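Entry type: protein chain
Record version: 2
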Amino acid sequence: MLTVTFPAAAFATNCYVIAPGPGEECIVVDPGIGVEETLREVLTEHRLKPAAVLLTHGHVDHVYSVTPVCGGEIAAYIHSDDRYRLVDPLGGSSLGPQLVGMLEQQFGKKATWREPERVVEVRDAERVTVAGIDLDVVHAPGHTEGSVMFAVDQVPEGVPAEAEVDRTLITGDVLFAGSIGRTDLPGGSHEAMMRSLRDAVLPRPGSSLVLPGHGPATTLAREKATNPYLQDLA
């Protein structure tokens, strides 16, 4: 499984490009702020054609470039509980006008938003098959109401054998290396996050490679052993 990861221009949000191999259709996960140029370079280098955009949740730092990436043909997939966030993630986001203004100053242009033309709502335990890759939707609210993880029974090319992983879990802002997503933003809930960690994260195999929404990749075995939020639940 070809997997390319690069950070967005703001908030260091991880954008993932996933494909069966070079020259194939691909999936783009969480195209955040300012990713378009780098994404074009990745697609050109590996001769890839986007088939869908998957969104782990509806915060603006994960969805800002979804409409230009989708164009009028490609669908954006998001959990039904976060669908409302695509109406106006700038105006209704947790950023606030001051931070939006800072971003506009950084990029030298006014922040604008237009909904994707095609949106597909997904639900817990649903299997999404795109670009020849099967992904299982794991609803894990807490960071937002519709936060999800995507589970794939494959690992990216180039992962060393000593990593001892045989599957991948794209966790968005549910689980990071050594931490979890914040729960104090609108739509967040600490209680819901603790339930998600207990019921949706802990039961999954430790042999999962974790690709988070921010920061470095990790493994679920490592997080179960060292992440204080998971240890408190074990």
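Comment: Helices lie at 36-46, 60-63, 66-70, 96-107, 190-201, 220-226, 228-231.
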